[in-house]
Amino acid sequence: MSVQTVSVIVVSRERPDLLRRCLTGVGQLCYPDFEIVVVADRTGCEAVAAMGWAERVKLIRFDEANISAARNFGIAAAAGSIVAFIDDDAVPEPTWLTHLAAPFDAPEVIATGGYVLGRNGISFQWRGHLATRTGGRIALPHVDTDPFTPKAASGQAVMTEGTNSAFRRDTLAGIGGFDPAFRFYLDETDLNMRLADGRGDTVLVPLAQVHHGYAASARRGHDRAPKDLTEIGASTAVFLRKHAPDTDHPSALAALRGERRKSLLAYMIDGRLEPRDVRRLLASLEAGIDAGMSRAIATLAPIGAPTVPFLRFTASLSGRSRHISGRHRHRRALKQEATRLVAAGDIVTVFRFGPTPRAHRVRFVEGGWWEQTGGLFGRTERSGPRFRTARFAERVRGEWARVAKLRQCATNDP
């Protein structure tokens, strides 16, 4: 397998703490030949500088609330033959880029997409889907971990997630990158539809995994309740104008209204929204639809070649992947040992279990290691039994076996 040069692009706005965590994870990637391109607002740029990374990454100041435009600035600066994208509120498994880039050895492959783990770090938030011309999605059944190339019918496209996707730079730049008419919603889906014209194959890669927590933003709170639906309405209208015949617009917009109303009522029932919030949010959706029906849709010009050479990221990794374990009462000692191992360049996983049936959770902590917590008798997969009997050492061995293939570099010690 050849090694392609890859530019990892991270866009960040008003989330400097999450950007630092994301970059810490990206800095532990096993992949041998990548650069990091950060497109961020003032606070994000300051966070990168505070990490001491200002000279280690390509840093671009961008203050506009438009992720498509920001990503295009990243593409313009990217000098890798492949460009990969991850969001600032996500963290990649160490083998993420190794798996995501591998299919590009085949010349017919122009894009790849990985799987996304949700807030508990165990359940999948996103796997494989096809996109329809009205912006809908169709789930793809796939049960093993091998990369696969879905077949899309006419009017469909293989979907990739913006927080876990990669493209050949020349292909992506040649079609003008992302369309800035989509400021944050349906931007990737629009790109997928534009690539679904016989240019090449999109491969989905189940082992290319990132953890994504849906962090708070100007559009949603910490509890994931929406604050505004204007851009969702606007982007949907733009998407329909670009990809669907006029006769499909009324039914697609009716479906959007119904889905969003149902979702808002669910938030209201569980106390995250007030009735007046539901009315306000539905009104913002309508305002967005109206705006999207008249929003300018420009012809996208190709993005030129980068003017700055490839800036290879040099990580201080040992190549070792370590896992340590203990009870909840050992928390302080485990933290000290994990800190020491991370400082030595190791990829570290901490298993910390208590004598309860509490469900497990995985997260990448600020100190730079992976931490799995829960009860010794609790379930990992949410589809499993709520209670299971296990000895401590047996449980640790089982959990390490579950994640080892994601956490170990090819050069890892036996």
UniProtKB/TrEMBL annotation:
The entry's keywords: Transferase
Family matches, as InterPro entries: Glyco_trans_2-like, Glycosyltransf_2, Nucleotide-diphossugar_trans
Name of the protein this chain belongs to: Glycosyltransferase family 2 protein
Boundaries of every Glycosyltransferase 2-like domain copy: 7-170
One Pfam family named in its UniProt record: Glycos_transf_2
GO molecular function, one term: transferase activity
